[in-house]
Amino acid sequence: MLPFERHTRILELMDAHESLLTQELAQKVGVSEATIRRDLQQLSERGQLARTHGGAVRLERSAHQEPAFATKSVRMQAEKSAIAEAMARQVRDGSTVIFDAGTTILEVARRLAGRPLTAIALDLPAAQALAVGATEVLLLGGRVRSDSFSITGPWTEDQLRDLRADLFLMGAHAVDERGISNAVIEEATVKRLAIQVSQQTVLLADHTKFGWRAMAQVCTLQSVDQIVTDRGSRRLAWLKDAGPALTLT
Q1: Is a pLDDT exceeding 80 seen at residue 182?
Q2: Looking at the domain assignment, is residue 119 inside a domain?
């Protein structure tokens, strides 16, 4: 079987099963596990699936939908952990930090919990994780979106306009040369406001978010001060010239 035939078969299997172990894929495709690992690496680099420990999961690429929180939480765990570790080291005690919705930002929140910070949370999981010890947590009011637990709507936007923060830790659904975009219009609006009220904005995203575009435009790449991502993004040469400082974990 030629490589493109294997890749097509793998993607068909991922569409049918959503997630599979390397061993299962090797058996279904009829090749060695080593071959499957190479194929998964190539497909992951193209953004066609996401690798996990011991296998892979399907990526939704709809401009109108996003994966549920439970689905996102198991994807790219090693990459998210490395990104979160790198970001947590940069945050200064005493800062006022806005925490965006999303599983990568949640990993940062878990590492900063208990430190002397003022944390403004834009989703429920981050607020819960941060509410430890010396960390003061402000949870904005608004509509809680089912399956993602982000907080959006006019109440959220009105409260954000009256705040000032040192740092906004932002997630994204998709990033390309035209900028940062999101699958949900209401979340995109909240992100733009958080950028406006923060002295500095850092985008945190693993490499599967790069190279494609979602429905709702958030901002240009020049609107953020720094991008923290994993080394799977190193092949995207345009990132180096995009404007923001680039940190590869």
Answers
A1: yes
A2: yes
